[in-house]
Amino acid sequence: MKMPSSSATDLEKKGMRHFISMKDFSKQEMDDMMELMSMLKEARKDNAIPQLFKGKSVAMIFEAGSTRTRVSFETAATMLGGHALFLSPKDIHLGAKESIDDTARVLSRMCDVIMARTNEPETVDALAKMSTVPVINGLDTRFHPTQMLADFYTIKEHLTPGKKLTDLTLAFMGDATDVCRSLLLTCCKYGMNFKQIGPVKYQMEQEWLDLADTLCAESGATYEITEDVSKVSECDVIYGDSFYWTTQMDEKEERLAAFMPNYVITEELMSKAKPGAMLLHCLPANDKEEVTRGALEGEYSVAFDEAENRLTAQMALLVYFTRKFVKEPTEETRVRHQERIEGFLNQL
How far is CA 83 from CA 58, 73, 211, 322, in A? Predict the structure, then answer.
Protein backbone atom coordinates (compact mmCIF):
# COMPACT_ATOMS: atom_id res chain seq x y z
CA MET A 1 0.00 0.00 0.00
CA LYS A 2 1.40 3.40 -1.03
CA MET A 3 1.82 5.89 1.80
CA PRO A 4 -0.44 8.94 1.32
CA SER A 5 1.40 12.18 0.67
CA SER A 6 1.72 14.60 3.57
CA SER A 7 2.59 17.48 1.24
CA ALA A 8 1.37 20.95 2.22
CA THR A 9 1.09 21.75 -1.51
CA ASP A 10 -1.56 20.83 -4.06
CA LEU A 11 0.01 18.04 -6.11
CA GLU A 12 -3.00 17.72 -8.44
CA LYS A 13 -3.69 21.21 -9.75
CA LYS A 14 -6.74 21.02 -11.97
CA GLY A 15 -6.26 22.77 -15.29
CA MET A 16 -2.56 23.54 -14.73
CA ARG A 17 -0.61 24.43 -17.86
CA HIS A 18 3.03 25.01 -18.74
CA PHE A 19 4.45 27.78 -20.94
CA ILE A 20 6.79 25.95 -23.31
CA SER A 21 5.88 27.58 -26.64
CA MET A 22 3.47 30.33 -27.69
CA LYS A 23 2.16 27.99 -30.40
CA ASP A 24 0.42 26.03 -27.63
CA PHE A 25 -1.92 28.95 -26.90
CA SER A 26 -4.87 30.32 -28.83
CA LYS A 27 -5.05 33.84 -30.23
CA GLN A 28 -7.57 34.71 -27.50
CA GLU A 29 -5.23 33.42 -24.79
CA MET A 30 -2.37 35.47 -26.26
CA ASP A 31 -4.63 38.53 -26.29
CA ASP A 32 -5.57 37.86 -22.65
CA MET A 33 -1.90 37.71 -21.66
CA MET A 34 -1.22 40.99 -23.46
CA GLU A 35 -4.23 42.66 -21.83
CA LEU A 36 -2.88 41.58 -18.43
CA MET A 37 0.49 43.03 -19.44
CA SER A 38 -1.20 46.36 -20.21
CA MET A 39 -2.84 46.51 -16.80
CA LEU A 40 0.34 45.58 -14.96
CA LYS A 41 2.37 48.10 -16.95
CA GLU A 42 -0.11 50.86 -16.09
CA ALA A 43 0.07 49.81 -12.43
CA ARG A 44 3.87 50.00 -12.59
CA LYS A 45 3.67 53.55 -14.00
CA ASP A 46 1.57 54.50 -10.98
CA ASN A 47 3.86 52.62 -8.56
CA ALA A 48 0.80 50.59 -7.57
CA ILE A 49 1.52 47.01 -8.65
CA PRO A 50 -0.89 44.59 -6.92
CA GLN A 51 0.93 42.03 -4.78
CA LEU A 52 -0.38 39.10 -6.82
CA PHE A 53 2.67 36.89 -6.21
CA LYS A 54 2.94 37.62 -2.50
CA GLY A 55 4.39 34.78 -0.48
CA LYS A 56 5.33 32.86 -3.63
CA SER A 57 8.63 31.85 -5.17
CA VAL A 58 9.89 31.16 -8.67
CA ALA A 59 12.83 28.78 -9.06
CA MET A 60 14.99 30.07 -11.93
CA ILE A 61 17.17 27.36 -13.48
CA PHE A 62 19.89 28.81 -15.71
CA GLU A 63 22.13 26.45 -17.67
CA ALA A 64 23.09 29.40 -19.90
CA GLY A 65 23.84 33.01 -19.05
CA SER A 66 21.30 35.78 -19.45
CA THR A 67 20.72 39.48 -18.89
CA ARG A 68 17.11 40.18 -19.80
CA THR A 69 15.61 36.82 -18.77
CA ARG A 70 17.22 36.72 -15.35
CA VAL A 71 16.74 40.39 -14.47
CA SER A 72 13.15 40.49 -15.72
CA PHE A 73 11.99 37.38 -13.84
CA GLU A 74 13.77 38.31 -10.63
CA THR A 75 12.46 41.88 -10.73
CA ALA A 76 8.95 40.75 -11.71
CA ALA A 77 8.71 38.39 -8.74
CA THR A 78 9.88 41.13 -6.37
CA MET A 79 7.52 43.76 -7.75
CA LEU A 80 4.59 41.36 -7.36
CA GLY A 81 5.51 40.69 -3.72
CA GLY A 82 7.26 37.34 -4.25
CA HIS A 83 10.75 35.91 -4.41
CA ALA A 84 13.04 34.49 -7.10
CA LEU A 85 15.81 31.93 -6.60
CA PHE A 86 18.71 31.86 -9.08
CA LEU A 87 19.87 28.27 -9.63
CA SER A 88 22.93 27.71 -11.83
CA PRO A 89 24.51 24.30 -12.59
CA LYS A 90 26.88 24.99 -9.70
CA ASP A 91 23.97 25.42 -7.29
CA ILE A 92 21.89 22.29 -7.98
CA HIS A 93 22.44 18.72 -9.14
CA LEU A 94 20.18 18.91 -12.22
CA GLY A 95 20.70 15.86 -14.41
CA ALA A 96 24.00 14.99 -12.70
CA LYS A 97 23.83 13.72 -9.13
CA GLU A 98 20.03 14.11 -9.18
CA SER A 99 17.71 13.28 -12.06
CA ILE A 100 15.73 15.98 -13.82
CA ASP A 101 12.53 14.19 -12.75
CA ASP A 102 13.46 14.30 -9.09
CA THR A 103 14.59 17.93 -9.35
CA ALA A 104 11.19 18.86 -10.78
CA ARG A 105 9.32 16.99 -8.04
CA VAL A 106 11.35 18.58 -5.24
CA LEU A 107 11.19 22.13 -6.59
CA SER A 108 7.43 21.74 -7.14
CA ARG A 109 6.93 21.16 -3.41
CA MET A 110 8.99 24.21 -2.43
CA CYS A 111 8.24 26.77 -5.15
CA ASP A 112 5.20 27.97 -7.07
CA VAL A 113 6.75 28.28 -10.54
CA ILE A 114 9.79 26.78 -12.25
CA MET A 115 11.47 28.88 -14.94
CA ALA A 116 14.17 27.11 -16.93
CA ARG A 117 16.69 28.39 -19.46
CA THR A 118 18.25 25.17 -20.74
CA ASN A 119 20.84 23.96 -23.21
CA GLU A 120 18.69 21.05 -24.36
CA PRO A 121 14.94 21.05 -25.08
CA GLU A 122 14.63 17.63 -23.45
CA THR A 123 15.48 19.24 -20.10
CA VAL A 124 12.58 21.70 -20.04
CA ASP A 125 10.24 19.01 -21.40
CA ALA A 126 11.28 16.62 -18.61
CA LEU A 127 10.78 19.32 -15.97
CA ALA A 128 7.29 19.99 -17.32
CA LYS A 129 6.41 16.31 -17.37
CA MET A 130 7.12 15.80 -13.67
CA SER A 131 6.45 19.24 -12.19
CA THR A 132 3.28 19.87 -10.19
CA VAL A 133 3.68 23.64 -10.65
CA PRO A 134 3.75 25.62 -13.91
CA VAL A 135 7.00 25.43 -15.86
CA ILE A 136 7.98 28.46 -17.96
CA ASN A 137 10.45 28.01 -20.79
CA GLY A 138 13.00 30.81 -20.48
CA LEU A 139 14.72 29.65 -23.71
CA ASP A 140 15.76 26.33 -25.14
CA THR A 141 17.26 25.55 -28.54
CA ARG A 142 13.77 25.38 -30.06
CA PHE A 143 11.65 28.15 -28.57
CA HIS A 144 11.83 31.49 -26.75
CA PRO A 145 8.19 32.08 -25.71
CA THR A 146 8.77 34.80 -23.12
CA GLN A 147 10.50 36.84 -25.83
CA MET A 148 7.52 36.32 -28.12
CA LEU A 149 5.06 37.69 -25.59
CA ALA A 150 7.21 40.81 -25.13
CA ASP A 151 7.64 41.17 -28.91
CA PHE A 152 3.97 40.95 -29.81
CA TYR A 153 3.02 43.32 -27.00
CA THR A 154 5.65 45.85 -28.11
CA ILE A 155 4.43 45.72 -31.69
CA LYS A 156 0.86 46.18 -30.48
CA GLU A 157 1.90 49.23 -28.42
CA HIS A 158 3.32 50.90 -31.54
CA LEU A 159 0.67 49.98 -34.08
CA THR A 160 -0.39 52.61 -36.58
CA PRO A 161 -3.91 53.74 -35.58
CA GLY A 162 -6.52 51.62 -37.31
CA LYS A 163 -4.23 48.62 -37.80
CA LYS A 164 -4.31 45.26 -36.03
CA LEU A 165 -1.54 42.73 -35.45
CA THR A 166 -3.16 40.47 -38.05
CA ASP A 167 -2.71 43.22 -40.68
CA LEU A 168 1.08 43.11 -40.37
CA THR A 169 3.98 41.30 -42.01
CA LEU A 170 7.12 40.69 -39.94
CA ALA A 171 10.52 40.06 -41.54
CA PHE A 172 13.23 38.25 -39.60
CA MET A 173 16.68 39.02 -41.02
CA GLY A 174 19.17 36.20 -40.73
CA ASP A 175 19.63 32.71 -39.32
CA ALA A 176 16.92 30.23 -38.31
CA THR A 177 17.55 30.77 -34.61
CA ASP A 178 15.25 29.80 -31.74
CA VAL A 179 13.88 33.35 -31.92
CA CYS A 180 13.28 33.07 -35.67
CA ARG A 181 11.53 29.72 -35.22
CA SER A 182 9.41 31.09 -32.38
CA LEU A 183 8.43 34.10 -34.47
CA LEU A 184 7.47 31.87 -37.40
CA LEU A 185 5.21 29.66 -35.29
CA THR A 186 3.76 32.46 -33.15
CA CYS A 187 2.96 34.60 -36.19
CA CYS A 188 1.37 31.66 -37.98
CA LYS A 189 -0.67 30.73 -34.89
CA TYR A 190 -1.81 34.30 -34.21
CA GLY A 191 -2.51 35.30 -37.80
CA MET A 192 0.39 37.65 -38.60
CA ASN A 193 2.32 37.19 -41.85
CA PHE A 194 5.99 36.20 -41.57
CA LYS A 195 9.12 36.24 -43.73
CA GLN A 196 12.58 34.90 -43.02
CA ILE A 197 15.12 36.70 -45.20
CA GLY A 198 18.53 35.05 -45.26
CA PRO A 199 20.95 32.78 -47.14
CA VAL A 200 19.60 29.36 -48.19
CA LYS A 201 22.06 27.49 -45.96
CA TYR A 202 20.62 29.19 -42.86
CA GLN A 203 16.93 29.07 -43.68
CA MET A 204 14.23 27.38 -41.58
CA GLU A 205 14.19 23.57 -41.37
CA GLN A 206 11.36 21.75 -43.15
CA GLU A 207 9.91 20.17 -40.00
CA TRP A 208 9.03 23.63 -38.67
CA LEU A 209 7.66 24.76 -42.02
CA ASP A 210 5.37 21.74 -42.02
CA LEU A 211 4.03 22.80 -38.62
CA ALA A 212 3.72 26.39 -39.86
CA ASP A 213 1.60 25.15 -42.78
CA THR A 214 -0.86 23.59 -40.32
CA LEU A 215 -1.01 26.74 -38.19
CA CYS A 216 -1.49 29.01 -41.22
CA ALA A 217 -4.37 26.85 -42.47
CA GLU A 218 -6.15 27.59 -39.20
CA SER A 219 -5.28 31.30 -38.81
CA GLY A 220 -5.11 32.56 -42.38
CA ALA A 221 -1.53 33.80 -41.96
CA THR A 222 1.14 33.34 -44.61
CA TYR A 223 4.90 32.86 -44.49
CA GLU A 224 7.77 33.11 -46.97
CA ILE A 225 11.37 31.93 -46.72
CA THR A 226 13.58 33.87 -49.12
CA GLU A 227 17.05 35.24 -49.92
CA ASP A 228 15.55 38.36 -51.47
CA VAL A 229 16.32 41.37 -49.30
CA SER A 230 14.03 43.57 -51.42
CA LYS A 231 11.10 41.76 -49.76
CA VAL A 232 11.47 44.15 -46.81
CA SER A 233 9.37 46.53 -48.90
CA GLU A 234 6.37 44.34 -48.02
CA CYS A 235 7.04 44.38 -44.27
CA ASP A 236 5.80 46.40 -41.29
CA VAL A 237 8.25 44.97 -38.75
CA ILE A 238 11.95 44.26 -39.31
CA TYR A 239 13.49 41.98 -36.69
CA GLY A 240 17.18 41.39 -35.96
CA ASP A 241 19.12 38.76 -34.04
CA SER A 242 22.76 37.71 -33.81
CA PHE A 243 24.25 35.88 -36.80
CA TYR A 244 26.08 33.52 -34.42
CA TRP A 245 25.76 32.45 -30.79
CA THR A 246 28.26 31.47 -28.10
CA THR A 247 28.06 27.81 -29.11
CA GLN A 248 28.88 28.71 -32.74
CA MET A 249 32.13 30.64 -32.29
CA ASP A 250 33.98 28.16 -34.49
CA GLU A 251 31.56 29.13 -37.30
CA LYS A 252 31.70 32.88 -36.66
CA GLU A 253 33.76 33.93 -39.67
CA GLU A 254 31.87 31.66 -42.05
CA ARG A 255 28.55 32.96 -40.80
CA LEU A 256 29.53 36.61 -40.97
CA ALA A 257 30.76 36.11 -44.53
CA ALA A 258 27.39 34.58 -45.46
CA PHE A 259 25.24 37.29 -43.86
CA MET A 260 27.27 40.47 -44.29
CA PRO A 261 26.64 42.94 -45.77
CA ASN A 262 23.39 41.90 -47.50
CA TYR A 263 21.35 40.97 -44.44
CA VAL A 264 22.55 43.62 -42.01
CA ILE A 265 19.77 45.92 -40.79
CA THR A 266 20.94 49.39 -41.76
CA GLU A 267 19.27 52.77 -41.97
CA GLU A 268 19.13 52.31 -45.73
CA LEU A 269 17.41 48.93 -45.40
CA MET A 270 14.84 50.38 -42.97
CA SER A 271 14.07 53.14 -45.47
CA LYS A 272 12.99 50.44 -47.94
CA ALA A 273 10.47 48.85 -45.56
CA LYS A 274 6.81 49.92 -45.48
CA PRO A 275 6.08 53.47 -44.28
CA GLY A 276 5.88 53.46 -40.49
CA ALA A 277 7.80 50.18 -40.19
CA MET A 278 9.39 49.46 -36.82
CA LEU A 279 12.66 47.77 -35.88
CA LEU A 280 12.81 45.08 -33.19
CA HIS A 281 15.86 43.24 -31.86
CA CYS A 282 15.83 40.68 -29.04
CA LEU A 283 19.30 41.87 -27.85
CA PRO A 284 22.16 41.63 -27.17
CA ALA A 285 23.04 43.45 -30.39
CA ASN A 286 26.38 43.18 -32.15
CA ASP A 287 26.90 46.66 -33.59
CA LYS A 288 27.93 46.71 -37.26
CA GLU A 289 27.20 42.99 -37.62
CA GLU A 290 23.46 42.15 -37.76
CA VAL A 291 22.38 45.76 -37.09
CA THR A 292 24.08 49.14 -37.24
CA ARG A 293 24.03 51.47 -34.28
CA GLY A 294 22.38 54.09 -36.45
CA ALA A 295 19.47 51.76 -37.19
CA LEU A 296 19.19 50.60 -33.59
CA GLU A 297 19.01 54.21 -32.42
CA GLY A 298 16.68 55.28 -35.24
CA GLU A 299 13.26 56.81 -34.63
CA TYR A 300 11.66 53.58 -35.89
CA SER A 301 13.52 51.39 -33.36
CA VAL A 302 11.49 50.01 -30.44
CA ALA A 303 14.19 47.56 -29.34
CA PHE A 304 14.58 49.05 -25.88
CA ASP A 305 10.82 49.27 -25.31
CA GLU A 306 10.89 45.60 -26.33
CA ALA A 307 13.60 44.85 -23.75
CA GLU A 308 11.66 46.61 -20.98
CA ASN A 309 8.57 44.64 -21.94
CA ARG A 310 10.37 41.45 -21.01
CA LEU A 311 9.70 42.60 -17.42
CA THR A 312 6.08 43.37 -18.29
CA ALA A 313 5.72 39.91 -19.83
CA GLN A 314 7.28 38.10 -16.87
CA MET A 315 4.97 39.86 -14.41
CA ALA A 316 2.00 38.75 -16.49
CA LEU A 317 3.24 35.17 -16.80
CA LEU A 318 3.85 34.73 -13.05
CA VAL A 319 0.31 35.93 -12.36
CA TYR A 320 -1.43 34.27 -15.33
CA PHE A 321 -0.11 30.79 -14.53
CA THR A 322 -0.53 30.86 -10.74
CA ARG A 323 -3.54 33.03 -9.93
CA LYS A 324 -6.15 30.30 -10.36
CA PHE A 325 -4.40 28.20 -7.70
CA VAL A 326 -4.25 30.93 -5.04
CA LYS A 327 -6.22 30.04 -1.91
CA GLU A 328 -6.72 33.16 0.17
CA PRO A 329 -7.23 32.25 3.84
CA THR A 330 -9.99 33.92 5.80
CA GLU A 331 -9.06 36.32 8.57
CA GLU A 332 -10.34 33.74 11.05
CA THR A 333 -7.91 31.16 9.66
CA ARG A 334 -5.00 33.61 9.82
CA VAL A 335 -5.75 34.52 13.41
CA ARG A 336 -6.22 30.89 14.44
CA HIS A 337 -2.79 29.87 13.11
CA GLN A 338 -1.06 32.94 14.49
CA GLU A 339 -2.49 32.46 17.99
CA ARG A 340 -1.74 28.75 18.02
CA ILE A 341 1.91 29.23 16.92
CA GLU A 342 2.52 32.23 19.18
CA GLY A 343 0.96 30.37 22.09
CA PHE A 344 3.32 27.46 21.57
CA LEU A 345 6.36 29.72 21.23
CA ASN A 346 5.47 31.63 24.41
CA GLN A 347 5.61 28.36 26.37
CA LEU A 348 9.14 27.48 25.24
Answer: 6, 10, 37, 14
